Amino acid sequence: MKKRLFAFILAAGIMCLLCACADESSKDSSETRPSVSSSISQIDEVKELSRNLCLSMSEGDFEAVYSLFSENMRTQLNKSGLISAWEKAAEDTGDYKEYHFVSVTEQEDYTIVTSALEYEQKGIVVTLVYNQSEELDGLWLDNCDFSESGEIIVPTSEEASMPAASQE
Q1: 3-state SS class at 25
Q2: Burial class (CB in 10 A: 0-12, 13-18, 19+), 110
Q3: Is the pTM of this model over 0.85?
Q4: End-to-end CA distance of the chain, in Å?
Q5: If you average pLDDT over every residue of the chain, what do you get?
Q6: Are 82 and 62 in contact (CB under 8 A)?
Q7: Helix (H) or strand (E) holding 16
C-alpha cells in the first residue's frame, strides 16, 4: 500500500513538473513565434477574414485572396490558376444565395477554415489554410449540395473535384 501511495505521489510530482515546464516553454515560443489564432487575434477575426475572401472570389475579386498567398503557395498556384480553379468550381452554380461558416480547426502551425457559398444550383466549399504568418498556405475548392434543411452535402473523396493548391 505504501509503495502504491509513494508511486502515485511521485507520478503526480513528475506530472506537475512537466506541466510547469510545458507552460514555460509555450510562453517562450509564443513570444518568438505566435500561433495563428493569437497573431490574427481571435478565431472570430480569422472567420471574418475567410468570409471576406470567399465573398471576394464570389464577386470576381481574386487579388484579395492572391495577395495573402505565401511565397510557397505562389509557386504552386498563380493568380490565373486561381481564377481558372474558381471558374471551374463556379460553373453552373446559378445566382449567389448565402454564405455559410462550416468550421475552424488548428493543426500544428496552421489554422484551417472551411466555408460554403450557397448558390441556386449547387454550392462551393472553400477551405483556406493559414500559416503562422497569416498567409494562405492552402486553398481547396469543391462543389457541394444543400439539403432541404440547409445541411451541406460534400462529395466523397472519389468524387471530390479540385484542390486549387496546397502546401505539403
Answers
A1: helix
A2: middle
A3: no
A4: 52
A5: 77
A6: yes
A7: helix 2-32
